[in-house]
Design brief:
Blueprint lengths: L1 E3 L6 E2 L1 H14 L18 H7 L5 H14 L7 E2 L3 H8 L5 E4 L4 H10 L8 E3 L10 H12 L7 E4 L2 H9 L3 E5 L14 E3 L5 H9 L1
Helix pairs in contact: 1-3, 2-3, 6-7
Length: 209
């Protein structure tokens, strides 16, 4: 089984996420960094990010964010990275694949359907809207209980150290992609690094067959 991170790995969600964060902070009368200074919020659970941004009530900030992200068009203000779709077409002929994202699955499923990604996925795992399984290691462990796959025959693909830690916590191989938002993360423990999507099939074959 191949487990894919979504934001920063399959899609570039920066415009929709950062704009929704900025608007949410403004709604609460809080200062907002620029979009370029908010790239670090792409990947982890947003509740944690609002805590780091100093929101006195992170839950209220998350509610404000979701107003813009879910109902204001931010959800679809993203793009699929160049080269991803043909790689998914190729890999789907040989491997089962699933999404494992820190984005609530209620949103992730809409995005993958909208951009033609869902047809390749056996399952789409993400936290509940109430924050259940915000921790990605817990999410990946839950995914394995659902799929029944042997982690030794699985690989996680992602762009952040949260993805790497989740894979390691579940005794799974990990491939780091260089096109996402983990540039400042320590990914030295990854089993492999890829610079472009077309490198993935060969690397995956070397790790899990």
């Amino acid at each position: 089984m191949i487990f894919w991170d979504l934001d920063g790995t399959l899609t570039d969600p920066k415009p929709g996420i950062t704009d929704s964060v900025i608007k949410a902070l403004h709604d609460l009368g809080l200062p907002a960094p620029s979009a370029d200074d908010l790239e670090w919020v792409i990947g982890p659970a947003l509740l944690w990010s609002f805590e780091k941004l100093g929101a006195p009530d992170p839950d209220a900030a998350l509610d404000a964010y979701r107003k813009y992200y879910n109902h204001g068009g931010g959800m679809y203000d993203c793009t699929v990275y160049d080269g991803i779709l043909p790689v998914l077409d190729d890999l789907s002929t040989r491997h089962k694949m699933s999404i494992a994202t820190a984005k609530p699955h209620a949103y992730a499923r809409k995005i993958t359907a909208h951009f033609g990604l869902s047809k390749h996925m056996a399952h789409e795992f993400g936290p509940e809207l109430d924050g259940t399984r915000n921790d990605k290691a817990e999410l990946l462990a839950h995914a394995l209980t659902i799929t029944g796959d042997d982690p030794a025959r699985c690989v996680m693909i992602g762009d952040r150290h949260y993805d790497l830690k989740a894979a390691r916590a579940n005794n799974m191989a990990f491939i780091a992609v260089d096109w996402g938002y983990g540039g400042q993360d320590d990914m030295s423990d990854a089993d492999a690094h890829v610079k472009t999507p077309d490198e993935l099939p060969g690397v995956i074959a070397s790790l899990i067959g």
